[in-house]
Amino acid sequence: xxxxxxxxxxxxxxxxxxxxxxxxxxxxxxxxxxxxxxxxxxxxxxxxxxxxxxxxxxxxxxxxxxxxxxxxxxxxxxxxxxxxxxxxxxxxxxxxxxxxxxxxxxxxxxxxxxxxxxxxxxxxxxxxxxxxxxxxxxxxxxxxxxxxxxxxxxxxxxxxxxxxxxxxxxxxxxxxxxxxxxxxxxxxxxxxxxxxxxxxxxxxxxxxxxxxxxxxxxxxxxxxxxxxxxxxxxxxxxxxxxxxxxxxxxxxxxxxxxxxxxxxxxxxxxxxxxxxxxxxxxxxxxxxxxxxxxxxxxxxxxxxxxxxxxxxxxxxxxxxxxxxxxxxxxxxxxxxxxxxxxxxxxxxxxxxxxxxxxxxxxxxxxxxxxxxxxxxxxxxxxxxxxxxxxxxxxxxxxxxxxxxxxxxxxxxxxxxxxxxxxxxxxxxxxxxxxxxxxxxxxxxxxxxxxxxxxxxxxxxxxxxxxxxxxxxxxxxxxxxxxxxxxxxxxxxxxxxxxxxxxxxxxxxxxx
Length: 511
Ligand SMILES: [Fe+2]
Description:
Blueprint: H1 3-17, H2 33-36, E1 48-51, E2 58-63, E3 79-86, E4 94-102, E5 109-114, E6 122-129, E7 132-133, E8 137-140, E9 148-154, H3 166-173, E10 177-180, H4 207-217, H5 221-229, E11 232-234, H6 258-275, E12 293-297, E13 301-305, H7 319-322, H8 332-343, E14 349-354, H9 380-390, E15 396-400, E16 406-412, E17 422-429, H10 440-447, E18 457-461, E19 465-472, E20 475-483, E21 493-502, E22 509-510
Parallel strand pairs: 9-10, 10-11, 13-14, 14-15, 15-17
Antiparallel strand pairs: 1-2, 2-5, 3-4, 3-6, 6-7, 6-8, 9-19, 12-13, 16-17, 16-18, 19-20, 20-21, 21-22
Helix pairs in contact: 3-5, 4-6
């Protein structure tokens, strides 16, 4: 057996059983490869994170990097990382522990799938490498049958557009889950005039370049603190790879050959995995990454997390193209998976995390329509089929991002028919920082003339922030939480608007 494979299996076994040298963990110097050469400095510069919680399991994550913006600065050898999960913040009641191997092939990242936990419980976790101990993270498992659930919806954090200040407020709100629906990094080149400038000298293409970009983003203190405060459920959109890419087609096929773009995808997906608290089932296979998956919160909610980027047809450029039945957003296997998950659900709420907006945006004031082809509007037949399915599903709610604005809408069976039934609700959760501070007058001048063409919009707004949902058996109370500015490292937060989705009554209304 190759040495690397054997080590990985050992690491996986240790993670699963949590049974390695229990009494010595976090007390003795690290054994194995790490012991041969001490780490040059604290390797926990990128913090800790947790994610993909189940009732009895959660993934805990870290990445060792003594020089995070320059490839990590780690030795080209595996490093043993001890981990602990405790019931208390002071780690007196440690319930799981083990040793994971931080492998240079995965940028010395660690993804431990901690099993055998109790449902609906808060846990604390930490790591040790050499003589260094990480900050402690806080996470929680899903209750077997929760009566309520608090979810924060976030997306789109462009480093160059501002500080990630909305996370400071999110942390105070203590969500059970952070749902991040894409654009965790932006691949754009450094812009000298930006409020914060991207590292590097251009767009990332290589694995090293993507790793450095993720590392830079993870130096934002509010982002790091939010990762340490709650489990995240993440999916990616386009900017984790290349703006507006579709499957293996780049934004600019004339400038990136197919082979070059496949290499870029491979690098981008690997760096994504390396930096996200997701299960090893998401280890990329070359230019493929398995990210669509679902989570059950007892009878309260089922969450289907989509991948609307990897399997889609290349974007159309015409209204007629958007209505072509050959256009797919999900690809046949994911479409069947989603249909099955919707049909089999007994949950009160059926939540869909979609990177891109599902409700119609008619961009043409007055008669006729003009659609935004990168979102579901560009894939009308498949979108309308999904909306038809939503009529058969209990309380569908779509949570999406991408647009860098708050857009909260009724989902309608058929947007071509003004009298069509409302089948659900959608929240487009603005952005953490992308587009920066926007000018209200310019925003309203652009969007106000379109309100009459889009009567399904309930709230449309330009502020940076996130959406917060208190999901209960009888309804969802939603808040649009916004900050005053992202151009400074701190900003006060307020609730811009409060909305309600009542169980059994499709649609959303402002409270
Ligand atoms: Fe974005």
